[in-house]
Amino acid sequence: MAGTQVIAPECAAPPRSFGRTAYSSTLARKLGLSDATALVVTNVIGVGIFTTPAIIARLVPDPAAMLYLWIVGGLLALAGAVSYGELAKLCPKAGGEYNYLSQAFGPAAGFLSGWLSLISGFSGAIAATAMALVGYLGRYAPTLTSSAPLVSIPLGITTLTLSRQALAAVAVITLFTILHLCGLGPGRLAQKSLAVLLLGIVVIFIVAGVLAGRGSWANLHSPAGTYTLKDWLLALIPVMFTYSGWNAATYVSEETRYSRRTVSAALVIGTVIIIGVYIALNALYLKALPVALMSSTINVGDAAAQRLFGFGSGMVTAALVIALLGAISAMTIAGPRVYFAMGRDRVFIPALSRVSRRFRTPAYAIALQAACSIVLVLVGSFEQVLIYTGFAVVLSSGVTVFALYVIRRRRGIRASFWRTYVIPGAFFLSSMLIVINSICRDPKPSFYGLLLIAAGIPLFFILRRHPHEESRIETMPSLLKKEPIS
To answer: What is the pTM (predicted TM-score) of this model?
Structure first.
């Protein structure tokens, strides 16, 4: 019957009681296309689009070449989104990269991807974003940005430092943790509201900037400075990082209605919206600022607002605050679904697979990620973690797209030449070039990053030796039976 959700019996595990709280291992399917798209948009648009153009202008001082960079970066992000959408159709389960890599290369590969998500991809990113948010809020409440230690607790290898800035960041993380512990209802409402507010402010900024008398479109045709192909390819790296996060909808596949079509559509729609916003913003920046001036500016968004309107930094700050709130919220939703999937497959702590019977959220997984983020804030090590593992996050997404080819070939699934080779291949090759370039330019952080990731290998084997540890990573036919039908 149309509109009726039917779930295969084997997908619905009976609730388990632990003390007074009942848990199950089944997530609720409540998210629609707009929810998943909002998750993508808020997970991508952040501080980068307001600051990265200055880096691009220094490397490639040519307006046309700069715009081509954002177009090419957007097309590569779209190639990744299309490839992940195909993976979401084949493996409609929670967990994103963990799920796909486990299916293609085995549980160890999936575990290391999930381990990377825990220490860096989500926990470290949430810590950094919360601290950045406090920094921008400091424009309205300067006392929040004080990093003077209130209390310092030595812990041997590190020191736990309580400052007003750190405590404010912890409060933000705790707020979103509680919000998303209390069910998908409040969480998705907050996410959609933040997405609408963010896009609304950005669109108003773009339209007002286009109509403003100040600035000149002649800046887009100004003489180009000197640069090489190597500079252009080097500039593509920060562009790709600014586009990163478009895969957010894949983590909530099990909570999305008609996930096979909804997740893939959300990835594409969300990425197309982001491409349009990014290209329009960069064209507006070039109208406001000549390339030479842009290259010497830290916050291009603020500088462009001042040049176009004579004021407007408040609008840019508001957009940044909303973008950072949306990013923290999106990562608080997405990350725990990875640890939930790992716990359910018994490759990580099994308790992480417990779902609150009342709120239908992976409560223990959400709490674990919040605890990791808070620790990183208090010990001040999130910046190092992100620097060390930045290349690995790109590597993980590139190998995940390659997994699409592996899964299709193993299952004997035929697709067009473009969908099988060209689209995934373009994203995979660009990701590998970024990784190689990062390692060659600065091998020391990459070495430390590899050590951090390698620390997960003994943990994987310890957990696999648990007496209740049977791999429960399911086969593709089993996955295909569990998708709700209409």
So the answer is: 0.86
